[in-house]
Amino acid sequence: MNKLESSYRWVVFSTVLLAYFLIISQRTAPGLITDQLMKDFHVSAAVIGFMSSFQFFAYAGLQIPIGLLSDRFGPNRFLILGTILTGIGCIIYSFSPNEYVLIFSRFLVGTGDAMIFLNLVIILSQWFKAQEFVKLLGVISLVASLGSLTATVPFSAWISLAGWRTPFLTIGIILALSSYLLYTVLVLKPKKIFKDDFEMKKNKYKNRESVWRILRRTISARQAWATFLCHFGLVGAYVGFIGSWGVPYGIHVLELSRSEASQLMMYGLFGAILGGPLISWITSRLDSIKKVYSFVHVITFFSWLGLFLSGVKPSFILVVVLFFLIGFGNGASALTFAVVRKSFPIEEVGVVTGFSNMGGFLSAVLLPIVFGNVLDLFPQDTINVGYHYGFIIPVLFSLVGLLGVIMIKEEKSEGKNVLNAL
Predict the structure, then answer these.
(1) Within 10 A of 195 (CB to CB), how many other CB atoms are there?
(2) pLDDT number for residue 68
(3) 121 with 349: CB under 8 angstroms?
(4) How far is CA 231 from CA 226, 398, 400, in A?
(5) How many CB atoms lie within 10 A of CB 314?
């Protein structure tokens, strides 16, 4: 039976998406309790920013190693391991007695999270045809947005009812149990259904090109750096902000309650929910990734710039619109991996995906730290001024993303667009 035509591939796709949904919900959930953690553990904004960044530091730093290992040994084991580690990290987080354990637990979450998306991309490449890839990326983007959506009002309401420890403990246990489901769907069942294919895959992974040669080729490719910069500007600024300072911004600047501030984050997620599928559909119709992606980056840049120019007392309606547009851009960030899929051989999709993804989460590491240090420069009674100047950071990051999309090489050949890794 051919995997690319088997109906079982949809079982694989659905199961992996479920794990991805749960993990995404925990990527930004701590942002809901930023000020509460500062109060409970008596720490500064800079420490909280460091904690958030430590999670994304683990994520970003492991992207290339995990990509190389996944290309060499296959994605299944790393996806399962990543799910277990994320679950354990959430459980430890829920029992944290001090800020040091908090930081360690988020490091575990970041380590587990680092193994999820790029292996999801590799699995899609193995189970689905190339022409299906862009459309499926839109579905993945939608699921990611829905996962983040649960980390706003629903999770905030749960925290209000049960305290912040119980929700993180519960999700951690569910994730740990999900790892066995992944093992069953990705390893046990395929061994029985696709015996020949399974043996061929094992032999293929044993005869790989030198890791260092693949790595050198990746970091010398213009197309790889273009996708790195695209993700740096589009994803990191958004994830870094909503995962650390988004809710406090709503509370301290717009004078919203915690529930209302979490609703503010939802507007960005609504934009992402619309942006992922819509941009994937438009791209597949136009057959030009660069044109569509360039438009997305321009919109995102001017949206961050608009937040900065709105001053220390911005209009609530303006902030809602700008957050929606920024979320729209983040939802369209899956196009980064459409570029990767079309530009590099299937055997190197993992490492290049990791390299590109590292760009997004490198900026997600930097933004909470720098933003937190900016806020610490201002007393509490003028914190709105601190947020105003803090928005310079995502403006600069999104400018880097614009540079990246300009660097993407897209040529026409026989009436079709072909992306070349130069």
Answers:
(1) 11
(2) 83
(3) yes
(4) 9, 9, 9
(5) 21
Task: Average the pLDDT over 5-14 and give the result.
Answer: 85
For the chain, how far is it from start to end, CA to CA, in angstroms? 37
Q: What is the pLDDT of residues 264-309, one digit of tens each?
A: 878 887 888 888 888 877 887 777 788 889 999 999 999 999 999 9
Where do we find the tokens 């080729």?
A: 217
User: What's the rounded Cα separation, in Å, for the pair 248 and 107?
Assistant: 22
pLDDT at position 130 is 67
Are residues 264 and 368 in contact, defined by beta-carbon separation less than 8 angstroms? Answer: no
Handedness of CA 34, 39, 45, 47 (dihedral sign): negative
Q: Is the pLDDT of residue 397 over 60?
A: yes
Predicted confidence at residue 210, as pLDDT, reads 65
Report how far residue 245's alpha carbon sits from residue 241's, in angstroms, rounded to the nearest whole number: 5
Chain Cα centroid distance, residue 229: 14
In this structure, are residues 13 and 140 in contact, taking their beta carbons and an 8 Å threshold? no
Give the mean pLDDT of the chain: 82
* Residues contacting residue 170 through CB under 8 Å, at least 6 positions apart: none
Using only C-alpha atoms, what is the Rg of the chain?
Answer: 21
3 state SS of 411 = strand
Question: Is the model more confident about 352 or about 207?
Answer: 352
Cα gap 399→97, rounded to integer Å: 40
How far is it, in rounded angstroms, from Cα 186 to Cα 15? 9
Here the tokens at position 379 are 């007393």
For 418, phi and psi rounded to 5 degrees? -125, 125
> What SS3 class is residue 165?
helix
Q: Who contacts 11 (Cβ-Cβ below 8 Å, separation ≥6)?
A: 185, 189
Longest dimension (CA), the chain: 68
| Residues pairing with 411 in the sheet | 418
| Rounded CA separation 214/119 (Å) | 17
pLDDT reported for residue 85: 94
pLDDT at 129 over 90: no
Distance CA 258, CA 248 (A): 8
Helix locations, 128-162, DSSP H: 130-150, 153-162
CB burial of 322-343 (b: ≥16 within 10 Å; e: otherwise) equals bbbbbbbbbbbbbbbbbbbbbb
pTM of the model: 0.72
Asked if 308 contacts 388 with a C-beta cutoff of 8 angstroms, the reply is yes
What is d(CA 361, CA 160) in angstroms, rounded to the nearest whole number?
A: 29
Higher local confidence (pLDDT), 242 or 107: 107
